[in-house]
Amino acid sequence: MSQQAFQIIARGPRADAQTAAEAVDADILLEGATYSILEEDEDKGLWRIDAFPTSDDEAARFQAVLADFPALKVTREVLADADWLAMALSGLPPVKAGRFFVFGVHDRGRAPVNAVNLRIEAGAAFGTGHHGTTVGCLLAYDRLLKAHSYKKVLDVGAGTGVLAIAAARTGSQLAVGTDIDAVSVRISKENAEINSANARFVHASGLRHQLVARHAPYDLVFANILARPLIGLSQDIKGALKPGGVAILSGLLRTQERAVKAAYLSRGFRVMFAIRRDAWVALVLKR
Q1: Helices within the chain (DSSP H only)
Q2: Domains of the chain: residue spans and CATH
Q3: pLDDT in tens, 175-216
Q4: 24 contacts 30 by C-beta, under 8 angstroms
Q5: By three-state DSSP, how is residue 206 classified?
Q6: 279 and 26 Cβ atoms separated by less than 8 Å
Q7: In the chain, at which end, N or C, are there fewer CB atoms within 10 A of the end residue's CB?
């Protein structure tokens, strides 16, 4: 991306802004992208989307998606020399998902006393809790916890570490997270420290890292990645789970649900339930 950061602003009627935001959420090329939607002028019925791209490709994709909504006026504004990503995230509200309350440092005073409060700072990693896939995983895990506890949990594609940290904060004796991005691993470790969570994170592709293999089999595996790698990892995830273990899979669109489900059913899994948020699905399967 060019050295000077900028934001993309789209203004227009509420219905168009909300539909455009849904299109951003459903666009696989904008997974994890940072944006907010809010009402700017109640009297005029004016809403706005503020997008904060982190690369030229992401900026181009944002503009391509927004171009499909001619009622929205799209502009760019150069950002001052500041921590603009943190500023962008400060505009995102906290997220409530079952017993979990996910928030950033800017909302630390709003954390309720009767929730599992998770302070998650994203930096350059995916998983603030605002995306439909992350919310779906947390809702699924909250539902499972009402009937069962999970001593050993693995989080594949941990991003900010929110899912492994959620497990560690709700009684898991071992929570391990992996990510192919070294920056995400660093951020997840920082988030674990912030939340006083006994969760460990390693830089790894797949499930063959020594730490991951040493603690297998797991009671539960999170994999909030993408449909194609979910299918490719179906045998490895089965191998990482003990018989009767549970997998929570997300990062897949509703249109991809059938293919992912088929891959796991062929490995002997059965579907327990699914959580659907916007265009996204979280599948819960038992080995």
Answers
A1: 14-26, 56-66, 84-90, 132-145, 162-169, 182-194, 210-215, 227-232, 234-240, 257-265
A2: 6-83 (3.30.70.260), 125-286 (3.40.50.150)
A3: 999 998 888 898 899 999 999 999 999 999 889 899 999 999
A4: yes
A5: coil
A6: yes
A7: N
